[in-house]
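Notes, p. 3: input format for complexes.
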Amino acid sequence: MAKVKTTFFCQNCGAQAAKWVGKCNSCSEWNTFVEEVIQKETKKAVLGSTNGRVKTPQKIADVAVSAEKRILTPDQEFNRVLGGGIVPGSIVLVGGEPGIGKSTLMLQLAITSSKKVLYVSGEESEQQIKMRAERLSKTPAQCFILTETSTQNIFQQIKGLKPELLIIDSIQTLHTASIDSSPGSISQIKECTAELLRFAKETSTPVFLVGHITKDGHIAGPKILEHMVDTVLQFEGDRNHIYRLLRSTKNRFGSTNELGIYEMQGSGLREVENPSEILISSNTGEPLSGISIAATMEGMRPMLIETQALVSTAAYGTPQRSATGFDLRRMNMLLAVLEKRCGFKLGAKDVFLNIAGGLKVDDPAIDLAVVCSVLSSSEDIEISANTCFTAEVGLSGEIRPVNRIDQRIFEAEKLGFSTIFISQNNLKGLNKSKLKIKIVAVKKIEEVFQRLFG
Ligand code: TYD
Ligand code: MG
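Output follows (454 residues plus magnesium ion):
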């Protein structure tokens, strides 16, 4: 009988050690080492020395490129995030929290694609998948489903079926017979991915892997998983809201700045082509105090987002500060600027801030809108619904310029806004002649206050 071989793996970073250690040497995390049985049947041929052919260096100019043909899916948002469609032979990892809609997104891709697709699920039964497919109410063209977790069996089925697209839901449920540890363990995930990678590159079949994420938002399994695949997509959103964002955090075939937006409906995910329209909720007529609109960018996409603030006298000694979708420390900083530069006594007030739609915004260009919504609520004077803001606010109350100003202004104009506040420094090089929207360039926060509330 072969000797059982075990190794210890760090669950956080995938580092290996011959014996158990309390603290990982490479990532400094405590208590992350677990023992795993590894026992490979046969030593596989080393990748790179395939078929005994020896590769020689060649001039990059001499490398022949066959025009890379991308597979377009009916889902425009998905194509965009992938950088213009699916690249044959690529391997894409889709991560996200449980229940966010990864399986729905993948099944939707499977049943709307005109290619022959094999959807392998290790999590749900055929009936469950069928029920879900019926909910999505699309007519499946050439979609095959398989509930299987052994990679050997999956490859056997693939041989017969010859799918043009393979979807695995999820990589954590797979196991390969060549390694002797339980599914979901680091060595299993690594080996199964390596097998699928080999399959993808050898047959030029694109492979999609669904990956679970850990509590702190990283894809479960070793970091090396993200290095192995070509593209990593993150599906995110607030489960209590209907909007879902698909962004790429790594893409060998396109930009990582792209963003796809979906709306989760009773009948599956719907693409949202014009995100600004849904993110501005107050367009119901009467203006309300404490609301202002920011022209922000999410990656390469301009988006107009509503910020809402509520300022009220603190009922108890210590005032409360809370922000949803915005960094609380940054909000505190902006409040301090308002206090110091504009003389607002916000120290004894409760301040609540909310970004509409359950989005989380990192773009600093939202600063000015945040400040204005706080001022508007504090003064109880509403801001015209046709005004929007895009600028960063500095520590001394200066209004700082932001990038891609023309795209932001253009989007605001497209959506029918009549006035936009920008930084004076953004005026340089801006061609105003074609714009109908009124541009108010400001330098200081006091100036904004003067212009808005007189
Ligand atoms: P699912 O794709 O199972 O999530 P994941 O695979 O990421 O764990 O999504 C499940 C959620 O999506 C579930 O809470 C219900 C919701 N949902 C809809 O609202 N409409 C639908 O048509 C479908 C299929 C799911
Ligand atoms: Mg799922």
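Confidence is low (pLDDT under 50) at residues 42-46.
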